[in-house]
Amino acid sequence: MKTVLVTGGSGFIGSALVRWLLAHTDVHVVNIDKLTYAGNPESLADIEGDHRYTFIHADICDQKTMQQAFTTHKPTTVMHLAAESHVDRSIDSAAEFIQTNIVGTSVLLDTALDYWRDLDGAERDAFRFLHVSTDEVYGSLGSEGLFTEETPYDPSSPYSASKASSDHLVRAWHRTYGLPVLITNCSNNYGPRQFPEKLIPLMILSCLDDKPLPVYGTGENIRDWLYVEDHVEALWLVVSEGMPGRTYNIGGHNELRNIEVVHMICDLMDELSPSSTHASYRELITYVSDRPGHDLRYAIDASRIASELGWKPRETFETGFRKTVQWYLDNRDWWRHIQQGTYQGQRLGLKGVNNG
Q1: Which of 135, 149, 229, 230 is labelled catalytic?
Q2: Model pTM?
Q3: Which residue in 336, 346, 293 sits closest to 136, CA to CA?
């Protein structure tokens, strides 16, 4: 049986990947996760007893533990998703992003390289290391154009700079040492089980709690939205059939202004869970000072993965969005447990705001 080692498998995208692999393949999945605030064991509660699933509670920066994991489980594939990922948190505390996203990736690369060099024949030829990254490494687009795999890097935040650094490390390990790596850069993910500091779940839960809906600036920033199930299916396709050394952009073909997304959330919540105090949840929209270094627009050209690997998203924003809202309405225990912890929906990233 093939073994896939997933880092960050208890996070939003990682847990969706773990569940997808167990449902759609016959591989054994080893999940390595530090279980920071965003790593939620409840996201994998339904597969805990699966004999094809192993969990390791560990930090990817711990080289000894990473070496033990590779030696013990002998992965045929590494899918590296572990990362600090929220821009606002990176503004308040960049050091954690540098440690996990850059140092942690270098530890994994060194460990994977030593392991790969000791493999023989077909096992060595089949080994792959997939690094999952973000479109934010490319910086900001104007009103036209798309990010391609050749777009120069121009990160704006500590988060995107740390991911850009890790991308460069992965490419260097391929060019210098021959490690068979692949890189994906994706657009904004959304879907069930996303930590509620992100835009869509934050707005849904704020509606339910009758709290203000904070919108940065005037809400004109544009993002391309990718349903998480579409994303993880694309990741498996890339690592299974992609060309080593290649980068693949993964986008949802759903460009929307932030304020459009918030309006859609309000309107769907008005339909599915009407407010007892407001005629419409739109009345809760509150414009706040913009995020420092807030990129205007992201948009992905996903033609390479479409033409070379035959992938395209299954969900439109409308279909995936409705599934997402309904999931949060149907799974209140999941997010209530988070709200009882350290995050109650407060704004982050204020260190970069000029209040003068």
Answers
A1: 135
A2: 0.92
A3: 293
Boundaries of domain holding 61: 3-257+289-345
* 54 occurs within a structural domain: yes
> Residue 41: which CATH number?
3.40.50.720
Q: Give domain status of residue 356, yes or no.
A: no
Provide the pairing of β-strand 53-57 with 28-33: parallel
In a domain, 353, yes or no: no
Q: How far apart are CA 25 and CA 51, in angstroms?
A: 14
User: Is 59 tagged catalytic?
Assistant: no
Catalytic residue among 33, 59, 84, 136: 136
- Distance (Å) of CA 210 to CA 8, 194, 278, 281: 32, 20, 9, 8
- Which sign does the torsion angle of CA 28, 33, 38, 39 carry? positive
Q: For this structure, is 290 an active site residue?
A: no
136 is catalytic: yes
Q: Which of 159, 190, 248, 281 is catalytic?
A: 159
25 within some domain: yes
Q: Give, in order, the Cα–Cα distances in Å from 211 to each of 203, 215, 266, 274, 346.
A: 9, 13, 12, 14, 11
Strand partners, 204: none
**pLDDT tens series, the chain, 356 aa:** 899 999 999 999 999 999 999 999 999 999 999 998 888 899 999 998 999 999 999 999 999 999 999 999 999 999 999 999 778 888 888 999 999 999 999 999 999 999 999 999 999 999 999 999 999 999 999 888 999 999 999 999 999 999 999 999 999 999 999 999 999 999 999 999 998 888 999 999 999 999 999 999 999 999 999 999 999 999 999 999 999 999 999 999 999 999 999 999 999 999 999 999 999 999 999 999 887 878 889 999 999 999 999 999 999 999 999 999 999 999 999 988 887 765 444 444 455 545 43
How many Å apart are CA 331 and CA 326, to the nearest integer?
A: 9
* Residue type at position 49: G
> Domain tally for the chain?
1
